[in-house]
Amino acid sequence: AKLTAERLELTFAASGSANQLVASGNVVTDRTLPGKPVETATAQNGSAQLQGSGGWSQIELHGEVRVKEGDRSAQGDRVVLVRSAQTATLTGNAVVRDATTETRAPRITFVQSSGEIRAEGGVQSSDFATKGTGLQLAAMPANISGDTLRSNSKTGRALYMGHARLWQGDSVLEADSIELLRDAKTLNASGNVRGVFPQNPGSGVTPARTLTVQQRAPNKVKLWHITAGTLTYNDAENRAHLGKNVVAQSAEQEIRAPQMDLYFTRSEKGAAASGGAAASATAPLGAQQISRAVATGGVIVEQGTRRATAERGEYTAVEGKFVMTGGNPTIFDASEGTTSGRQLTFFLADDTIIVDSEKGSRTLTKHRVEK
């Protein structure tokens, strides 16, 4: 390492060998590992612990500390460089930035040899990339927080542990840990997973009721609240797989199942294909919205006084439709009783049930007096 400053003071041990170099005023250090960018640190003051055999063992800088390596820069109140571990540890309002991200924490450690970053004491990161890298739940910066962070610029992996939380647009995800895999554009959440995701506005109606709904106020973005043991989101597939006691709840229904896949579509500004321009205008351009949900392994759907069970349940947002199959699908309604069939289809907007059985298909409708 190379150290320069306006003033340098060398101290000696009783043995007569130099043991410390004290620097003050525009302190600059440079150190390089083979095949790595130069790591440059600047500060107001600093000191270097010297080895009896020559060279240094540790450098401490303080006062307006700045560190730069390649496209990554950092700042803090104090930095400690340890030669043997090839680490630089920033403390005191520590911040690290690269081309697309910023991370803040009380303590941030860089491992120069591996490219690893360790942040502790309450971490908050922002990802400003709105396309091309990472996963995108909305066309706006993503924010991620946790008690600790382990990330690696080489592998593109970031693991937030302890009270992990991600929020981007209308979407929010919380879990014991959240792992981001940049190159695979995948997110893995584990332990006490809780999430909020917007639904594709759709029409929420059967074709016969379209005119009635068009005369009503424009749809607002509907939010789904989910809980599960695990969640894996793949950006390329626009799909989230949830496992372990999954519950998905909206204002209209609740779905419970051992596992569930949520399929997303991106909102488009001014799109009128689903929900009309007024509805899509309530969601940010490019926001991921739930368009379909497929639950398996023994499904329970509750909507008001209606309760449906089957081995598999599929919900389509644009139609507001449930299709229940497998394991003797059954719907129980407090006023209409029990209906079973090989396949049951029902709609959230009205009380029509389409029953498919070995005897054919029939439609059941509960007649209501419109107010």
UniProtKB/TrEMBL annotation:
The organism's place on the tree of life at top rank: Bacteria
Pfam families membership: LptD_N
A biological process term (GO) from this entry: lipopolysaccharide transport
Domain Organic solvent tolerance-like N-terminal intervals: 17-114, 143-191, 225-346
Alphabetized UniProt keyword annotations: Signal
Gene Ontology annotations for the cellular component aspect, listed alphabetically: cell outer membrane; outer membrane-bounded periplasmic space
Gene3D superfamilies per the UniProt record, alphabetical: Lipopolysaccharide (LPS) transport protein A like domain (2.60.450.10)
GO molecular function, one term: glycolipid transfer activity
Protein name per Swiss-Prot or TrEMBL: Organic solvent tolerance-like N-terminal domain-containing protein
Species of the source: Candidatus Acidiferrum panamense
